[in-house]
Amino acid sequence: MVRELAISLYLFVFRILFNIFKLFPQKKKTSFVTSFGDNVLYTVNALEEKYSEEIVILKTNQCQVDFNDNDGRTVVHFDLSHPFDWVRSIYHLATSRMVFIDNYFGFLAVSRFHPHVTCIQLWHAAGAIKQFGLNDPSNQYRTKRAIDRFHKVYQRFDHVVVGSEKMADIFKESFGLDDDRMLRTGIPRTDFYYEESAKAVAKSALKQAYPSIYRRRVILYAPTFRDNNLESANIKLDIERLYRAFKDDYTLLLRLHPAIQGVFVNEHPEFVVDVSAYPDIHHVLVGTDILITDYSSIPFEFSLLEKPMIFFAYDLDEYKETRGFGEDYEKLVPGPVVKDTDGVIEVIKQDQFDLRRVNNFAQEWNEYSHGDSSKRLIEALYDQEHASHQNH
Fold it and tell me: How many other CB atoms sit within 10 Å of the CB of residue 217?
């Protein structure tokens, strides 16, 4: 109840400011609202390469990507902890002609853009294992006002960028949108996986940052968050057992989800390296030999590297009950599903991986992502508009 009141107050103030700023002239300007950043970064780079456009990046506190390497960009903190920047952000949103977002943002429920403004949902995942949006099982505990707000937000999306028909179908159900809003240009950040020189540079930078991975194979453990365990960095994988099994041949990288507030206590720094703060997860993936995860969206892009994965789903039944899956989890994921650390150790020691399955998974979920997704996205959105301006 208190949370709902706080949201209502926030949106009330936002709507007033937004409507005032709408009275200002619209500009040849694109604003990006971002929590994750990587899809936004690739899209911004492609836009700057082709067109002269004012670009504003509105960063939430969650976003770790640094956008300040180009003087032509304006980067603003989009958070109440920076009140002046928060107000500036609303001004930019009200006066832009294009608005990109990469997450669910409640402010869209009260943002009535000018008629010719286009709002594009970049989303932050190339695929989906757990259910979200209108299909989220936790919606049954939400108020009618909250559900109505969700619908209003989703209806603001003029386009949703997708990398596959599988994901298009999920978005249509999760957001309650028609097929004509799906933009099949591929996921911008997957372009990285087709750039051999960029991957080589990323791998080298990772080794410089973490010298212990030299001359060793690398296991990455990247679990998703649990709603009831956001304050703790305690993980279920038994580090001590992994240390005893693999300390001579492997380094274990740990990547906690950005939503986790706790601090991981590392008792084996010679074996475990916490890479949670490393700015780019995709650079970490390039340096990884074996991925251990659970219900995260990381496998959809990691599969493009055609490397083995283990799915450590110790709480599968509970997670299925609380979050729900779009399809049978054990059939969906492209690797062995294990429930305990002993299972993880056995799979690695026995090399129980089917890379053909990984490759099939990659092709199915990255159907439209071929290394030029950023460029194709910009062409789809800006080329027609640019041509019409040229004609006038």
Answer: 13
Domain spans, the chain: 2-187+370-391, 192-365
What is the spatial order of strands in the sheet that 159-161 belongs to? 73-77, 54-59, 29-34, 98-101, 118-121, 159-161, 182-183
Return d(Cα 13, Cα 16) in angstroms, integer.
5
Domains 2-187+370-391 and 192-365 share a fold: yes
Q: Which of 212, 220, 214 is nearest to 270 (CA)?
A: 212
pLDDT at 228 over 70: no
Rg, C-alpha atoms of the chain: 22
Round to whole Å and give the CA distance between 156 and 159.
9
d(C-alpha 288, C-alpha 273), whole Å: 12
Q: What is the pTM of this model?
A: 0.91
What letter does residue 126 receive in the DSSP assignment?
Answer: S
Report residue 162's pLDDT band, with 50, 70 and 90 as the boundaries: very high
According to DSSP, residue 182 is labeled E
In words, the CATH class of domain 192-365 is alpha beta
Band of residue 233 on the pLDDT scale cut at 50, 70, 90: low
CA 25 and chain centroid, separation = 33
Determine the pLDDT at residue 337. Answer: 96
C-alpha span between 84 and 120 (Å, rounded): 26
List, for residues 181-209, the tens digit of each pLDDT value.
999 999 999 999 999 999 999 999 999 99
Instruction: For 312, list phi and psi in degrees, rounded to 5.
Output: -90, 85
Give 176's pLDDT tier (boundaries 50, 70, 90): very high
Please identify, in words, the CATH class of the domain defined by 2-187+370-391: alpha beta
